[in-house]
Design goal:
200 residues; alpha/beta; 5-stranded parallel beta sheet; 4-stranded mixed beta sheet; 42% helix; globular; binds guanosine-5'-monophosphate
Length: 200
């Protein structure tokens, strides 16, 4: 069994990471497995527990931290977010390409931790413009003005960290961006498996 990739996917709040991810997951040949995060944020309308996130209390999150159950974690506008360790490596060993959709602080922890792992692929999704990003965040209409402002400020700071990633993808169009990402995953996988073969 060939080991799968660890794909770290970031981008500012509102850039459309979720939409691009859903498009990517339609392509079964990519063999992706979504890493479901744990968060203390309340569910948005339509979000499902254990599917979109493990929605937990602050106490439950802190307990998971204490037990060292998280691969990385970060605070984002007053809430905790983190990646449960339990199945990231297990799924990779099973040949799945594990997909982490996480913000920049947590991504940095993962990229540092896995810095010598040739199976890590990092990508950062950017909007066509900051104006476009603001329109999208406002278009969601699920949050109050103060939270929208915080998300916008955070988005600007997050954009500065795109240099930490191997690939920067422009989300000018969901289908085009997803196609580009699919091609990058396929090429990376060929290179990674070849490298594993050579090591044997
Ligand atoms: P949202 O509240 O919009 O669902 O997520 C806010 C930000 O947290 C997004 O950038 C999202 O990608 C990120 N995020 C989601 N899960 C995790 C996680 O497990 N760890 C980290 N560090 N960030 C996460």
């Amino acid at each position: 069994m060939k080991k799968g990739l660890l794909i770290v996917f970031s981008g500012p709040s509102g850039v459309g990471k979720g939409t691009v991810r859903k498009q990517l997951f339609k392509n079964e040949s990519l063999n992706l497995a979504y890493s479901i995060s744990m968060t203390t944020r309340l569910p948005r309308k339509g979000e499902v527990d254990k599917q979109d996130y493990f929605f937990v209390t602050k106490e439950e999150f802190e307990e998971a931290l204490k037990k060292d159950e998280l691969l990385e974690h970060a605070q984002f506008i007053g809430n905790y977010y983190g990646t449960p360790k339990f199945y990231v490596e297990k799924l990779r060993e099973e040949g799945k390409n594990v997909f982490l959709e996480i913000e920049v602080e947590g991504a940095k922890q993962v990229l540092d931790y896995y810095k010598d792992d040739p199976g890590v692929l990092s990508m950062f999704l950017v909007p066509p413009s900051l104006r476009d990003l603001e329109n999208r965040i406002r278009g969601r209409r699920s949050e109050e003005e103060s939270v929208i402002r915080q998300r916008l400020n955070k988005a600007k700071r997050e954009m500065d960290l795109k240099k930490n990633y191997q690939f920067i993808i422009l989300n000018d169009n969901v289908n085009r961006a997803s196609e580009e990402i699919s091609r990058i995953i396929e090429l990376k996988l060929v290179a990674y498996h070849k490298e594993q073969e050579l090591k044997k």
